[in-house]
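Entry 14. Structure prediction run on the chain below.
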Amino acid sequence: MSLPEKDTTPTSKATSTATSGVFFALGAYGWWAIITPVYFRILKDVPALELLSWRVLTGLPVLLLLLMATRRMDEFTKILRDRKVLLTLLVSALLLSVNWFTFVWAVITDNLVEASLGYYVNPLVSIVLGMFFLGERLRGFQIVAVVIAAIGVVVMGMTIGHPPWIAIALAVSFGFYGLLRKKVSAAPAPGLAIEMLIVFPLMLLLLFVVHFDRGTSAVSGPGWVTILLLLGGPQSIVPLLFFTGAAKRLKLSTVGVMQYLAPTGQLLLAVLVFNETFTRGALWSFILIWCAVLLYSVDSVRRSRREKRFEISIPGEA
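Output returned:
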C-alpha cells in the first residue's frame, strides 16, 4: 500500500506558510503579552535603569552572533559607513531606549494597565504621524478611530487625575521610532544592532551610576537575579525573531490586527494576576479605545481586500 503523496500545490504551500506565520505571530505577541512583563515583574526590586542597561548590554552580543550566523555582518558594517543612516539610527535608538525604559518602569511600579493602553493607541498615533510627515491621507474610518481614541485617552486622564503619561510616552516614542525606521535604509536586525551599539556606552555609564549610588543587583543580589539580568537581552531578541518570521509569512493587515493580542494579554495579566486596580472610568476609557481599534482593524482589512481584488483585475506583466 503506497503512502499518499505530499500536496505541493501553490495553494497548499500558501496555506502552510500562513499557518506557520500565525504561530510565529502568536509566539511574538504572546511573549510580549506574558513573558516580558512577568520577567520584569519578578525583577521589580531592581532599579529600572539597571534593567534597561542589562537589556542592551546583553542584547547586542546576541544580535551580533545572529548576524554572523546568518552571514549578514556586511549589512551591519555597511550601515556603519553611512553617516546619514547612522544619524537617523541615533535618534531612533534614543526613542527605543525611552520606550523600553517607560515600559520597564510601568511594570515594576504596577502601571501595566496604563502601559497596555499605550500599545493600543500606538497604531493610531502612527496613522497621524504618517499624515503629517509622509503626506498620507486619512480615510473616513481612520479619522473616526483617531478621534475616539483621543477621547479615550482624555477619559483615562480624568479617571487618574492627570494625563496618562506612561501610555502617551509609549505610544508617541514607538510611533516616532516606527516612522524613522520606515524612512531609514536599514534592515530590522542590522538596524537594531546598530541602535544597541549606539546606546551601549550610555548603558555602561548608567550601570556605573547605579553601582556607585546603591550597588548593582547583578553584583550584590542573589545568583538567580544575576542570571535573569544576564538573560535580559536574549528575552528581548527572541520575540523580535518570532515577529520577523510572522511578518515574512503573513499579510500586513493580518499582522496589524494580531498586534492587539499583546496589549490585551498585558491588560488581562495586570488585572487578573498582578491585581492592579481597574476602575469604572478606566473601563470606559478602554471601551472607547477598543471601539477605535475595531474601526481601524475593519478599515485595514477592507482596504487590503479591495487592493487584492484590484491587483487580480489587472493583468500583470509576464
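Residues 310-318 have pLDDT under 50 and may be disordered.
Filed with the rest of this week's runs.
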